[in-house]
């Protein structure tokens, strides 16, 4: 039986929604809304709001609001970029790093509960498939 992309997309979205919903209380206890968490988790890889918007496929105006909230909560601070004094880069505070790490741990634990239903061989195959879908080469994957 051939499964089309829309069906797989829907299943993946449902899985992610279930995992996020199961972690909503823990995120709230950390003072994070779901989208704020995603922005917080992206700051080190993409320290500029426009980069975060691109990476997360969010409107720049929305990222601006999330960043403002994260700054107000003490999770992120703005610093002048030494390479371009007209720009501000975002930096995680120690509190922000801790909140991010605890939120990631909660999401990982919930996802692991779901993965426990899958054999180790199927986990390896799932990882391989996801990497292929992301267009990653074998050399990209060896560092994981």
Describe this structure in words.
One of its GO terms (biological process) is response to stress. GO terms for molecular function: DNA-binding transcription factor activity. This is Regulatory protein MarR. By secondary structure, this protein is mainly alpha-helical. The chain has a single domain (9-116), classed as Orthogonal Bundle (Arc Repressor Mutant, subunit A), CATH 1.10.10. The chain is 66% helix and 10% strand. It is built from seven helices and two strands, in the order ααααββααα. Strands 1-2 form a two-stranded antiparallel ribbon. Strand 1 and strand 2 form a beta hairpin. Helix 1 (5-29) crosses helix 5 (94-115), helix 2 (34-42) packs across helix 4 (60-72) and helix 3 (49-56) crosses helix 4. It is globular, with a radius of gyration of 18 Å. The mean pLDDT is 92.
Notable features of this structure?
DNA-binding transcription factor activity, two-stranded antiparallel sheet, Arc Repressor Mutant, subunit A, 144 residues, WH_DNA-bd_sf, MarR/SlyA-like, WH-like_DNA-bd_sf, 7 helices
């Amino acid at each position: 039986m051939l499964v089309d992309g829309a069906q797989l997309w829907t299943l993946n979205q449902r899985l992610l929604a279930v995992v996020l919903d199961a972690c909503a209380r823990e995120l709230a206890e950390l003072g994070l809304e779901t989208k704020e968490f995603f922005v917080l988790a992206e700051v080190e890889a993409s320290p500029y709001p426009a980069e975060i918007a691109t990476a997360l496929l969010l409107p720049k105006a929305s990222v601006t609001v999330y960043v403002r909230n994260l700054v107000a909560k003490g999770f992120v601070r703005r610093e002048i970029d030494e390479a371009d004094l007209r720009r501000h880069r975002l930096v995680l505070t120690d509190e922000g790093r801790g909140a991010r790490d605890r939120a990631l741990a909660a999401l990982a634990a919930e996802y692991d509960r779901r993965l426990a239903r899958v054999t180790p061989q199927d986990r390896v195959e799932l990882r391989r498939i996801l990497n292929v879908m992301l267009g990653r080469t074998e050399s990209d994957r060896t560092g994981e």
